[in-house]
Design brief:
Number of strands: 16
CATH class of one domain: Alpha Beta
Largest sheet: 10 strands, mixed
CATH topology of one domain: Pseudouridine synthase
Helix content: 10-25%
Shape: elongated
Order of helices and strands: EHHEEEEEHEEHEEEEEEHEEH
């Protein structure tokens, strides 16, 4: 069964161009997705199947259809999901801390992926699980899940172009000397570990912008924005400054005041992949972090 992925009516700017050129340059359809549409889907011009080399005229209607997703080999498990937004392309979820995003060897079930697949099936929909941004198990906050391959590609492109903005808040040990700035330090695996990262000269480039929101006696409440998205980036960068996250015992933080790393994805800003409309979502701090933030002056 095929489902509609894209539909547009050619305007004066698109007239004279081939369908392939418009799909690739105007709608961000990748070569891989275009090949899939040609061989296992269909591309219709005014209701009739056509080759992508056909040139468009003003008012021509183009529809791209692809086979419906084959659900991943992820067991559906019903669980409460906090959904902040949903349409045909995107699912915006507020993830609680303690929830793993995708099944792993050590967490084969009970993950967000299991819950999302169950949610889709309950609605009579079949989609693969396509997270755009991933959060560590003990990080809370907003996540984007794309509901089709095209939307996932558009969001990935926005991440690469840095037009998808991700804002976090954190509680860290100590008071920072500089109250705002940028941490520009490459990150790589620590020797002998498959999990722990560190700042190292031969790592991948990583940049984190930070701003102190308020301070307590021996901890600080920060707002952070990622320019890059390396694994554990915020955790590693702050630890490298001597200010690890409260609760982050992997990178030197203490669990005396909070039982998990005090990190929350508070805001996401992007342009909708289909409409171009600007979207911004904000998720308040959960109670454990809000209590600590409230003790700052």
């Amino acid at each position: 069964m095929l489902e509609e992925l894209l539909r547009f009516v050619a305007d004066e700017q698109e007239a004279g161009q081939t369908i392939r050129d418009v799909l690739q340059s105007g709608y961000g359809v990748s070569r891989r997705l275009l090949t899939k549409a040609k061989h296992s889907g269909e591309i219709l011009l005014n209701g009739q199947p056509v080759y992508v080399t056909v040139r468009l005229a003003v008012g021509d209607q183009v529809i791209v259809r692809l086979p419906m997703d084959v659900v991943d080999h992820i067991e559906p498990e019903e669980m409460p999901l906090v959904i902040r937004y949903e349409d045909e392309d995107l699912l915006i979820i507020a993830k609680p801390h303690g929830l793993v995003v995708h099944p792993t060897r050590t967490h084969p079930c009970g993950t967000l992926a299991n819950g999302v697949i169950a949610y889709y099936l309950a609605k009579g929909e079949t989609h693969s699980f396509r997270p755009v941004n991933r959060l560590d198990k003990d990080t809370s906050g907003l996540m984007i899940v794309a509901k089709n391959q095209w939307a996932h590609e558009q969001c990935a492109r926005m991440q690469k172009d840095r037009t998808l903005k991700r804002t976090y808040q954190a509680i860290v040990h100590g008071n920072l000397r500089e109250k705002q700035g940028v941490i520009d330090a490459p990150i790589g695996l620590r020797d002998g570990s498959i999990i722990e990262r560190m700042v190292r000269h031969d790592g991948q480039p990583a940049r984190t912008f930070f701003r102190v929101l308020a301070e307590g006696d021996d901890w600080s409440w920060l707002e952070l924005q990622l320019e890059t998205g390396r694994t554990h980036q915020i955790r590693v960068h702050l630890a490298s400054l001597g200010h690890p996250l409260l609760g982050d015992d992997l990178y030197g933080g203490s669990r005396e005041r909070i039982g998990r790393q005090a990190l929350h994805a508070v805001q996401l800003s992007l342009h909708h992949p289909r409409t171009g409309k600007p979207l911004t979502f904000t998720e308040p701090l959960p109670p454990d972090m809000a209590k600590l933030a409230g003790q700052c002056s």
